[in-house]
Fold each of these.
Amino acid sequence: MTCKASGDVRAASGFDAHRPGGCNGWRGAWRRPKPSFNQSVIDEFRANGGKAGGPFEGGDLLLLTTTGARSGTEHTTPLGYVRHGDLLLIVGSDMGAHRHPAWYHNLLAHPLVQVEIGTERYGAVAVPAEGPRRDRLFAHVVRAAPGYGDYQANTPRVLPVVVLERTGAEAGADGPAPAPAPVRTLADKVVEVHTWLRAQLKHVRDEVDAHFAAAPDGERPEPGRTQGRVPGLGLQIRQHCLAFCQSLEFHHVSEEQHLFPAMEIHHPELGGAFERLRAEHRTVARLQQELGALPADIAGADPVRFRAELQRMPEELTAHLAYEEEVLLPPLAGIPFPPRAPKP
């Protein structure tokens, strides 16, 4: 019996012996197994190279690690997935329950997630699909795993379809993204983080352009026109804004608590530069809040004013990143990454 792309592993624990056809047809009354059930699947998955036995044998299973919306702690959930071309899709089915699963609320609050498939683990931005795009993707999911159609029939809520976008350099206009540069020093690591942050900013700008550039009839909206926007990008833009802002905040907190104090001891001549960077961090924190709030107004925003505001923020943010590289990269170029263990 194969449990292929069945969503949360609770689908398996709700097995109804009177309904044949594998977990795509399971709808047992027992929806809330003991927490140890999920943990046993997680342990087996990690111990066996991304494979699990029993009802999950041969199925498409991944581990999704999210950050708690309220607690801020990490939570790992085994989930079925469906591929659609280059897209990796998960569905917030919860067996057709009337509330979204906790992991979905978590990724709305913290879009950066960790994905484990097989023996590979990588970061991703979780972006729920909206509108017609969600409907198209869900139709594909149901063709691949019909049980999701049964789950949708069980509840009036619209089951979320979430695209897991692997983090890393964006693909260019001429083809796939180049392979990332090797990280051998702490300077390389700073450049890697900054490259990702710049890519997220570009992603947000490109999505905003797509939002304003076309109307349902294919015509470009006139300046000031707020009706007829292409649906389905508001949440996508929000998720990428949040991913950028939360990553930048974590990056700056790490610098101020760990990197800057250590470097000031060894490079006292850079004291003035570090004071400027700390002051810029406070300015950037304000910009982060403004950038995070900006997508909330996109549905009724004037395209010209919205784009002007969006352009102002990245210009200040990228100028800060450039100055940070100017100050930090030379002294960090001689520090290995990851750090080497001290000799006994």
Amino acid sequence: MVNVEHLPHVYTTLQNGLLNSDHHSTNPIIHLMAKLTEITTKPTPTKNATTSWGSGLLFFTVAVVAVALAAVQLDTYETVAYPLHELGETMHVPARKNSASLPGVEKIGLGQLSGPEEIVYEPNSGVLYTGCHDGWIKRVMLTNSAADSVVEKWVNTGGRPLGLAVDESGNLYVADAYKGLLKISTDGKIELLTDEAEGVKLGLTDGVVVAKNGMIYFTDATYKYIYREALNDLLEGRPHGKLLSYDPSTKETKVLARDLYFANGVELSPDQDFLIFSETFMRRCSRYYLQGEKKGTIDIFAKDLPGLPDNVRYDGEGHYWIAMPWDNSLLFKNTHKYPFLRKIFAFTLKHLRKVPDLMKFGGVIVLDLEGKAVGGYYDETWGMTSSAVKIGENLYLGSVTKPYITRLNLTQYPLN
């Protein structure tokens, strides 16, 4: 049998072997396996062939694990600790469980929408806009029957449209993950407003909102990673996000806040005196003051959320609707807590293109004007829910992955 006391020696042998091997030598893994064999070649009495076979299998398993750990340890990808001291007890939200199975829940645009990440409603035309994975921004004409809703291809950005906002004239503003901040006129003309700030290119333009005075506020989730690499930002653990503004009159882009943990959705307060924006990987919504004595400062609006916040939308009735693609599952907690575990996941993502599923469920929570929990809806099938918009008596949910928009009647299923 292999004594567990040998493991540190095995690991050290592996690490030294990988570090000291050169390109002229035998394959380093084969060389290391030979060294590992030497560690246990001392004759040991065995009762029978079965015991010997079992010892060999155990040793082989230990060797493979040791090789894997050594390879991960020597990988140049760095992970750091999150500031977990800033977190506390998870907020309790009186949410409705198994919401997807409620009678009357509808699927709009089924099969015609590819990952409708964000939803915005233009009240003058009665059109709902959504951005899809294939670059198309589609217009949805809503009807009482989901089956009768009309989905129209409108404009293709050539990138990945995420956050959406409309101004009072009906112009659409798009936070495109690859292109930057875009403006699309009512006749479908695309204009690039900005794709950099302070000489640094935007990495992953994410959320956007337009103020009544025309100022545009938006987020760059991470300047280091592009959209398809976004999971690496979570695994690394460093704050690469920014909150920005764009002034159409001067065409100036300003960084309002930096060093944010994946800056995501952004929304204005009812009086437009502050912004609320999601810091997804810290499970909180922060507040940036636009006016008053606190102008230019940041504090926490709501923290220790039961999941990772994405887009935030105000409903005009005293409530913020915050989409949550992931819950604060046990696996996520441990991934968040341990940098080496995140390094292992980053290694498997890099070499195997796979990571464990960190979520158990997704959905939406509702906060009042003070950041206190009012209620919510969640379901195990609602993972990757990315936006929630209340229009009339209905709630519309967007998703990064699903081929439809979910509609839930709030009169039939109220928050309380």
